Amino acid sequence: MIVSCITDRMGNQLFQYAAAKALAVRNKEVVKIDRRYYSHNIPTGFSYELDAFCIPQYFVTDEEIARYTWPNDSLWYRAIRKVYPKYCYFEKSFEYDKGFNTLGSKVYLRGFWQSYKYFEDIEDLIRNEFSFKEQVNTWDDHFAKQIKESESVCISIRRGDHITNPKIARIFGKCDKVYYDNALRIIEQKHKNLTLFVFSDDIDWCSENLKFKHPTVFVKHSFDTPRYDYYLQLMSMCRHFVIPVSTFPWWGAWLSTNKDKIVIAPKTWFNDPAINTQDLCPPDWIRI
């Protein structure tokens, strides 16, 4: 049994599950989900969201958790697990863990596992399980129809805690208007008559402050479900992508089935240059 400790928001949850699924397939095991994180005092807006996808919902029991890991992260248990970690394995660094595939068939995974390399061998299976339970009807939904019938570019703008939280702002890189203009120039070299679809956690700010030379549609949150799975689905329908430092639009771009898609991602994911992010994006994505 492979247990995936699921935390944070949708983008991170998808990475955590995908890595666990790949390890389970290699070992002919099942993935069980530990979602206890959402039963504690979590930040506003955080919730378990993997049930929006066609992912088997197998949840680990208290008895299984007790066999695989320690009850909590107190100093006492942290000291114990250094000597006897049970089956708990912590992510060592941000870059791809080359020893991941050798972890075996009994493991409790703690980490974020943000690299396509963890699951590239089972891409078709991940795409199948990451299909949305409630599909947008592209013919009846005018908004989705606009995206499908144009040379659509998903422009994702991350603001929120990257702007309002000084601690987080110091950790992650920023994508300014120059970044988006440069990214669009790359796409313009191969495609004309672009239509931009702007997705953001602060769409009102975007509509008031961002101007592009291409026709632009600002995707209001009124088109979305409270958990943003519809928002992600609309993103994935676009033909090309310019993403910020954020795992949510990363998945919007990855889930796109357009074989000719151009994906632009920021080269500076973290402000700390010592953090290696070379394994984050597939090799055909362009980082600037």
TrEMBL record:
GO BP annotations listed: carbohydrate metabolic process
Protein keywords: Glycosyltransferase, Transferase
Keyword Mitochondrion applies: no
Record InterPro entries: Glyco_trans_11 (IPR002516)
MF terms in GO: galactoside 2-alpha-L-fucosyltransferase activity
Domain of life according to the entry: Bacteria
GO CC field: membrane
Protein name: Alpha-1,2-fucosyltransferase
Organism expressing this protein natively: Arcticibacter tournemirensis
